[in-house]
Every structure is written in structure tokens, then in C-alpha cells.
Amino acid sequence: MSIKGLLGAVISLVLVTGASYGAGTLYLESAARERAEIIIGDLRKRGATVTYTGIDSALLSSGLSIRGVRIVTPTKQTYTIRKIDVRNFDWKNPEQPRHVDIRLQGLAVDPDGLAMMPKELRELFGGKTQFDFDIQHRYDPATRTVELKKLTLAAEKLGTLTLSLKIGNFAIPQGELMQNGD
């Protein structure tokens, strides 16, 4: 093979690889946006306005990170979330996920959103307070078992609460979960 032929083959390989990478990147971004909409879609169904500044997704992972989330409820309460890490999620059953592993970092409640709390508790928060929320659960319909592996709520000025539990003989009727605000 001549130098010219070798050079042509290398250039072709670079162009094909670059085009494949670009198409793969567009596919990943599209899939990540679809998954982000699944995660925040329920809030929109309830009338909230939800925006975010960015999404990260890995090629061979079902994980997803949504950055800079801002939620404005129909009653005009505002919540911001620095980052939502979806480490594992039942994408095949988004309405009734059988397994979830999600972490919310930097959940901030607008001070007006704390108005329903007792005055002493509002003073303890002293304005905006950051919360981190971490949940891992699994539902096995064959054994009718719900396992809440970890539920953690950490508040900046209050401390951390962590729960775990396992419930047997638990059936979730089709279509009953996550409807009508339940």
C-alpha cells in the first residue's frame, strides 16, 4: 500500500470514528433528556414549572445526573436542587418503579415555603436551609416484599435521619401507586 493510500485510510477511519462518536453523543443526550423528563415529569403533571441547567449520563450506565433544578409549584413556592443523582431506576416501569436509587443534593426550600412550620422551627432554619435526600428501595412482586434499604434525610442545621425497613406480604395493585397525589 502506498503512503497516499495509507494516509487516505487513516483519514477515512478518523472521519468515520468521529461521525460515529458524534451520533452516539447525540443519542446519549437524547436518551438522557428523556430519562430526566421521566424523573421530573410527575411534578409537571401536577402543575409545577420545572427547569434544569444540565444533564450528565454515562454510555453503559442507567444512571443520570440532573443539575440546577428549579421547581415552582402552582402556589408559587420555589424549590431548588443542586443535583439529582439517579444511580438506579426501573426505567421499564416509571409509574410504579420496582427499584429506585436516587439522591437529591442541596435541596433548598424558599423561606416562604416554610410558612406552615412553627415559628421556632423557622427560626432554627434561619432562611434557606439545604437538605440532602437519599433513597434506595426495591419491590419484589413475586415475594410481595418491599425493602427500603436506605432513606436518609440530612438537614444542614438539624442533623441526619436514616431509616431502613423491610415489609413482607405487601401487594401494590396495578395503577394504584403514584396517582392522584398519593
Structural account:
Strands 1, 2, 3, 4, 5, 6, 7 and 8 form an 8-stranded antiparallel β-sheet that branches. The protein has 2 helices and 8 strands. The N and C termini lie far apart (70 Å). Residues 13-27 and 176-182 have low confidence and may be disordered. It has helices spanning 3-45, 119-125, and strands spanning 49-51, 54-56, 64-72, 78-89, 99-109, 130-140, 145-155, 159-167. With 182 residues, the protein is an alpha+beta fold.
What are the SSEs and their pairings?
Blueprint lengths: L2 H43 L3 E3 L2 E3 L7 E9 L5 E12 L9 E11 L9 H7 L4 E11 L4 E11 L3 E9 L15
Antiparallel strand pairs: 1-3, 2-3, 3-4, 4-5, 5-6, 6-7, 7-8
Rounded average pLDDT: 76
Structural class category: alpha+beta
Number of helices: 2
Q: How many extended strands?
A: 8
How would you describe the shape? globular
Largest sheet: 8 strands, antiparallel
Instruction: State the helicity in percent bands.
Output: 25-40%
Distance N terminus to C terminus? 70 Å
Spell out the helices and strands N to C.
Answer: HEEEEEHEEE
How much strand content do the residues show? 35-45%
Q: Which value, in Å, is the CA radius of gyration? A: 22 Å
Instruction: Give unreliable regions as ranges.
Output: 13-27, 176-182
